[in-house]
Every structure is written in structure tokens, then in C-alpha cells.
Amino acid sequence: MYTQALNNPAVEAGVEDEEKLAAFQARIDREEKIEPNDWMPAAYRKTLVRQISQHAHSEVVGMLPEGNWVTRAPSLKRKAILLAKIQDEGGHGLYLYSAAETLGVSREELVDQLLSGKAKYSSIFNYPTLNWADVGAVGWLVDGAAIMNQIPLCRCSFGPYSRAMIRICKEESFHQRQGYDLLVAMMKGTAEQQEMVQDAVNRLWWPALMMFGPSDKDSKHSADSMKWKIKRFTNDELRQKFVDATVPQAKVLGISLPDPDLKLNEETGHWEHGEPDWDEFYNTIKGNGICNKQRMKDRIKAHEDGAWVREAAQAYAAKQAAKKSAA
Amino acid sequence: MTDTALFTYCMRLADDSAILSQRLGEWCGHASHLEEDIALTNIALDLIGHARELYTYAGQIEGKGRDEDALCFHRVEREFNNLLLVEQPNDDFAYAIMRQFLFSAFMLPFWEAMMSSKDEQLAGLAAKAEKEATYHLRHSAEWVIRLGDGTEESHNRINNALEFLWMYTGEMFECDEVVSSLVAEEVAIDPMSIKHLWDETVNTVLVRANLERPTESWMQTGGRKGEHSEHLGHILSPMQYLQRSFPQAQW
Ligand SMILES: [Fe+2]
Ligand SMILES: [Fe+2]
Ligand SMILES: [Fe+2]
């Protein structure tokens, strides 16, 4: 999910052994998986650490906008579904931090990067969830966009990331269906419920399209990722797949999408769409989205409030180890 | 008459689960570390499962067409019959863990005993809930020990939680006419019959946690009669707001 390539300074080439590089690229070209102990160019490692940790951070920060509705879920069944979904996202965060750790960084370092503002996470989670339909719209659109992004990542050249993605994708598609189901139930309901759904979709549609990252003409950093088979489709290709899959679902749902330029191109079979507001996108990435500061404040608070708990667990474990070695 | 007692009995258990799961849900996304976030959510999910089954069953016994959501979202504070213990706030992680431990130390032997209830529905739920309560107790007991025997700060925090929450533990062992009439029919169990098991668990864990068991003191009561602490209304307000605002809506 959420591989927007947000803070990709061009990865410095460094000096690598030509022979090793050629052998490495040959393995990638043969679709072999690269495993943590295999030789890899420093730039490959760095790109992966950045991408996997951004993805992990996104899973974790993404728990907040949905968590906003846990205590207000309108039925016990919906509350259980929502809690289970958020729990899955936490689990995704865990697998991904573990995948990143195989590349030689610790989870603590990565979390510090998030909390200090050095690391990015997907821009989508800087939008607020303002009515109950947002929970459904997040499942349908945000998990839906994540799946489009992630399915090709299941074939990523780096073994641990690819395996994490296979497991995560199964759960994300479950989330997407549950989100859609929530919206269907509301669309069958009262006029007020239908308005909530339309309102949620109006607010989340464009941010969901932005999840694929900048338009190809402005995205400079995918050449290496493509060559290394970390990325297999461009941002615009993935965005198009998402639009093509989602527009018919919106029709079935009976809502409109807030894009006057949306129209089916009969020749290509693709839905042509308008441009997202890229100023809004870059402004959000810079930290000025509606919820950026709130999300970080909440993550930092949870981390700081939990410090004494983690310290206690460590102190206890150290005492137990000391007792064992004394025995 | 039995039906009224059985309805009340199921509602009490359902309310315990619903209110405690609501409290646990407040942690979602805010716990000290991801593993614990997931663990607390696990417990919340189990409890929601129990609440749903119990409300549904209570609604069938009542026979007035109220389903699980009608019972959970359309009653006011005075109609809720949960233990005061489960509505106590998440002042910090120590309070949440101690609350869970004191409750689960009761619920595990409770469900074990309820597996032989003459009421098939309750016996069936007990068989499932007993396994879940085993995990809830293990998880919370491990944390009580870690916090008690961790750092000075964690020791003080868990000790404060113990001292504060202790006065709410007496309520679990109350046996009024509702319970005693069902005990006579072997549908319910007398909570005093498992007091020794609760004591044993609590004493063992507190010793390992370097915590002193509070001396028997005044025990608060009232939850089973709908006389609550001030916290309950604040739990119900967000919980019920959508159902109350849009009473015609299905979700
Ligand atoms: Fe994701
Ligand atoms: Fe996820
Ligand atoms: Fe998801």
C-alpha cells in the first residue's frame, strides 16, 4: 500500500563492483527473488528500506482515521468488522517492519524516523473521517487503491517484501469488500444515510487517486525501481486501473463521482478522468494537510505514553534473564 | 418468572461484555506498541462476540422483537446492568490491564462452571468463551506481573490501579434473587462457589508481581441495579449516538 515514492531523493549511484552489479541484474531479469543475505547494491537496499518503511508507517498511521469511529460504530456487527480491520492494518505494519528489518534497520529506528517527521506515510491518512460512511469509503476506495498498488508488489524482486505483500493483499481485498458492503447497506437506507455516502465519496475520491503518487510526467524516480522490479507499473498506469475498476462499482452503488471529466473512451475501453489537484497533494505531503499535525501528535502521544510500559517489559525481561543465568 | 430472571441474567453478562469491549476499543491505535494494540483489540473482539450472542438470546427470551442492537443501543444508563468494574476508565495502561485481570480471573472459572448449565444456549456460549477467557486471563496476568516487577514507575502505576479498582471486585460475587432463582434451576452458578478460584489466581499473580493484596475494604455496589458511576453515561453517549440520531436507519 501507499508507495507514493514520497521522499525519494534521487538515489545516489555510489561505486559498485561492475561484475556484481551485472550478476545481480541478471538474477532480477530471470525473476529470481533477492533474499536478505544476498549481495545487493546499496541503492537497491536503500530504496527498499524507504519504500517498505513508508508502507509500514502508512499502515500504522492509517489505524487512526478509522479508529476515530470505533467507539461510535452504529451496530455491534459493524463495530466488530471495523475493529478487526484496524487490527489487520496493525498486523500489516508489523510484517512490513519485519521485512524492513531484514535489510538491516531496526523497527525502533524506523519508528523514530516517523515520529521525528523524517519519514513519510501515505497522504491519504491526512484526511479526516467525518461521517460513518467514511469508514465504508475508506475500505472501498483506500483499500481498493492499495490493492491496485500492491498486487504488482506481490512479484517484487525482494523476497521478504513480496511474501509480506501476498499475505497483506488477501486481507486488503477483504477490507475492500467489507467497505463496499457497508456503503451498499447505507445506500439501501434512509435519505440521510445516502447523503452520508455521497459526502464521503465526494471528499475521498480525489485523495484516493492521489495515493498512486504524482503523474508520470512529474515522477522522476521510478526508472531504477522499474529496472529492479520493485515497481512494475507507472503511477498513471495504476491510477487508470483503479479508475477503470471503480467507476462501474460507483454506478452499482448509485452514487456519483466528483469528476466532471470522467467519461468512457469507447476505443480504449478506459475511463478518462480529470487531474487531481496536485497543489493540494504536494501541500499535504509537505505537512499541511488537514490532519498531518494531528496524526503525528497522536502517534507521538501513544509512543510517549507507552514508554513506561515498554521500559517495564524490558526491565522485567532483564530480571528474568538474570535470574535464569544465576540459577 | 424464570424467563424474566434469565433475561436479566443474560443482559447483565451482555452488558459486561459490551461495556468492557467499548473501553478496550478506546485503545485501538493508541497502545504502547503494535503487538499490544493487536492484543487488546483481540480481547475486545471476543467480548463483542459474547455480547452479541447474549443480547440476541436475551431478545429471544423477552419475545418483544428487540435484537442485539436494540438492546445495546437503545437503553439508557439506568437500564444497563454491567459491573461497575468494567466501566472504569482507561486512566493508563495499568488501569486497563488490572481491570481486565480482575475481571478475567473471575470470568474464566465462571465460564468453566457455566459449561454445565442446564440452559443449552448458555452452556454452548460458555464452551467457547472459556477458551477465550483463558487467553484474556493469561495476557492480563502476564502484564500485571511484568508491570509489578518491572520498573519503579510501572510498579507504582499497577499498584495504584489495584488499589483503586479493588473496591469494584465485590460486585462480581453478589447473589441476588435473579441469580439464586437460576442457581436453583442449575441454569446459573452461585458466584461464591468460584470465589476460592478467583482468590487463588489473584493471590498467585499478585505475589509474582510483588504487589500486596489490598485488605478487604468497602465494596462498591449498584451496577446490577442500574446504579452506576458517572462514567457510564459518557461511554453510552458516543456508542449510541448514530442509533439514537437515526432511529429509522439500518446499518
Ligand atoms: Fe495497506
Ligand atoms: Fe493494510
Ligand atoms: Fe486494509
From TrEMBL, chain A:
It comes from the Bacteria. Signal peptide: none annotated. It holds the Pfam family PaaA_PaaC. PANTHER family: 1,2-PHENYLACETYL-COA EPOXIDASE, SUBUNIT A (PTHR30458:SF2), PHENYLACETIC ACID DEGRADATION PROTEIN PAA (PTHR30458). NCBIfam families: PA_CoA_Oxy1. This is Ring-1,2-phenylacetyl-CoA epoxidase subunit PaaA.
From TrEMBL, chain B:
InterPro entries: Aromatic_CoA_ox/epox, Ferritin-like, Ferritin-like_SF, PaaA_PaaC, PaaC. It holds the Pfam family PaaA_PaaC. PANTHER family: 1,2-PHENYLACETYL-COA EPOXIDASE, SUBUNIT C (PTHR30458:SF0), PHENYLACETIC ACID DEGRADATION PROTEIN PAA (PTHR30458). This is Ring-1,2-phenylacetyl-CoA epoxidase subunit PaaC. It comes from Pseudovibrio ascidiaceicola. The lineage of its organism: Bacteria, Pseudomonadati, Pseudomonadota, Alphaproteobacteria, Hyphomicrobiales.
